[in-house]
């Protein structure tokens, strides 16, 4: 066997596992709202863009009647379960509709409803125990499998998936560009932990890494997805030509950097530790994504839309405390890996205080959306 399944070279930064106070399970309410808002959009995408007779006609000629869905970057739940239920319901609905319409030929009308199989993917370091414990406790109308590994490389056999879903995961970079920590490089990111408000060279290094990662992601999915299969990607985003510093995420990352610098000035950590730390996340614009997808060439862009995920969140729920808890559930692991555990409580206590001072900046300063909803279809080459 060749080495196609060797894990892609990638760093992993899992969300906080378990179900404790700082766990992702307890602090992923904002991500859940994104899943809820996307429900209707997924339903419409399946209704309008999934060619059910094309996909189901393959079942007529094969011994398998299984519709395979993958959730890439699923974390530990519970949002992934809601998302997978949404996808499955949309496909079943479309199938039933196609059954109720008159058909001329041997298309989907003569086929039984397929069985569904859902693959839950995340890094090997993800807390799959929590994921599968809660799955086992729930009733679900699909077969399941866990697929550990990086979605920047191959995960599935050729032409084996019919639908790929990934929500709020693709902004994580596989690795950090070396020049960010090279004192002799113009991209040395001194005293900062992200490209927000940093020199342009720093931004360019992040942008290039994201481009490489997405190219690998699309290359792998182009092999794994059947022709006509759909891919729904949901990502944090900036409107075209708007700097991240004007968006709440930019404010939050900037604030994390400032608090770390304060801690270094007070001797809790060294300045060089801050200089060598960079958050591996990149927030893309629609224009950039279009360019990357077109360069890959294997997918048609069926839907691309910036939307407002927080429209379903009660304004009172976006408080400095909830934002701090969400940040902690997502970033604690990577911060501990670099700085150790000693500063964690103090760090997030200070971040909470600073967020209280800056709470007016936690709302976007643009009327456009902050999340990208993309539907891609695998072309026939
Ligand atoms: C913010 S969580 C989102 C989880 C879930 N999709 C949701 O909406 O609640 C991002 C997840 O992506 C995973 N992730 C990041 N990079 C990845 C990669 N290269 N391969 C697989 N999973 C990855 C992280 O480990 C994390 O669990």
Question: Would you mind describing this structure in some detail?
Answer:
- It is a single chain.
- The protein is an alpha/beta fold.
- The chain has one domain: 3-Layer(aba) Sandwich (Rossmann fold), CATH 3.40.50.
- It is built from ten helices and seven strands.
- It has a seven-stranded mixed β-sheet, sandwiched between helices.
- The model has no long low-confidence stretch (mean pLDDT 89).
- The structure holds S-adenosylmethionine.
- S-adenosylmethionine (SAM) is lined by residues 10, 14-15, 28, 31, 35, 73-75, 79-80, 121-123, 126, 150-152, 167-169, 172, 174, 330.
Q: What would a concise description of this structure say?
A:
The protein has ten helices and seven strands. The chain is α/β, with parallel strands linked by helices. β1 (66-72), α3 (79-100) and β2 form a beta-alpha-beta unit.
Q: What's the assembly state of these chains?
A: single chain
Number of domains: 1
Run of helices and strands: HHEHEHEEHEHHHEHHE
Q: What's the CATH topology label?
A: Rossmann fold
Rounded radius of gyration (Å): 21 Å
Q: What is the architecture at the second tier of CATH?
A: 3-Layer(aba) Sandwich
Q: Pick out the low-confidence regions.
A: none
CATH superfamily: Vaccinia Virus protein VP39
CATH hierarchy class name = Alpha Beta
Q: Roughly how many Å apart are the termini?
A: 26 Å
Task: Write out the distinct hetero groups bound to the structure.
Answer: S-adenosylmethionine
Task: Quickly give the structural class.
Answer: alpha/beta
Q: Percent range for helical residues?
A: 40-55%
């Amino acid at each position: 066997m060749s080495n196609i399944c060797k894990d892609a070279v990638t760093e992993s930064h899992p969300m906080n596992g378990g179900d404790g106070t700082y766990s992702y399970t307890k602090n992923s309410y904002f991500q859940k709202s994104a899943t809820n808002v996307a429900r209707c959009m997924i339903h419409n995408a399946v209704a309008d863009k999934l060619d059910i007779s094309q996909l189901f006609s393959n079942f007529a000629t094969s011994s398998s009647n299984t519709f395979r869905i993958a959730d890439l970057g699923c974390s530990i739940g519970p949002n992934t379960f809601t998302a997978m239920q949404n996808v499955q319901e949309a496909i079943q609905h479309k199938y039933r509709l196609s059954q109720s319409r008159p058909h001329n030929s041997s298309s989907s009308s003569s086929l039984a409803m397929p069985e569904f199989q859902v693959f839950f993917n995340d890094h090997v370091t993800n807390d799959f125990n929590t994921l599968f414990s809660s799955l086992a406790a729930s009733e679900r109308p699909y077969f399941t499998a866990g697929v550990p590994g990086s979605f920047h490389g191959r995960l599935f056999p050729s032409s084996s998936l019919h639908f790929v879903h990934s929500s709020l995961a693709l902004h994580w970079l596989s690795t950090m560009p070396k020049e960010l920590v090279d004192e002799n490089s113009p991209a040395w990111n001194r005293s900062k932990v992200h490209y927000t408000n940093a020199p342009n060279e720093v931004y360019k290094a992040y942008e290039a890494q994201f481009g490489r990662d997405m190219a690998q992601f699309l290359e792998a999915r182009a092999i794994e997805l059947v022709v006509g299969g759909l891919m729904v990607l949901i990502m944090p985003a900036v409107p075209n030509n708007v700097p991240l510093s004007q968006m709440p995420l930019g404010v939050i990352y900037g604030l994390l950097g400032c608090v770390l610098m304060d801690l270094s000035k007070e001797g809790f950590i060294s300045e060089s530790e801050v200089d060598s730390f960079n958050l591996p996340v990149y927030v893309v614009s629609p224009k950039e994504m279009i360019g990357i997808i077109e360069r890959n060439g294997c997918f048609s862009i069926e839907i691309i839309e910036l939307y407002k995920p927080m429209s379903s969140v009660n304004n009172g729920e976006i408080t400095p405390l909830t934002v701090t808890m969400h940040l902690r559930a997502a970033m604690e692991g990577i911060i501990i890996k670099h700085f150790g555990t000693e500063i964690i409580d103090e760090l997030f206590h200070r971040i909470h205080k600073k967020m209280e001072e800056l709470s007016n900046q936690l709302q976007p300063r643009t009327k456009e959306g902050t999340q990208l909803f993309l539907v891609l279809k695998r072309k026939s080459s």
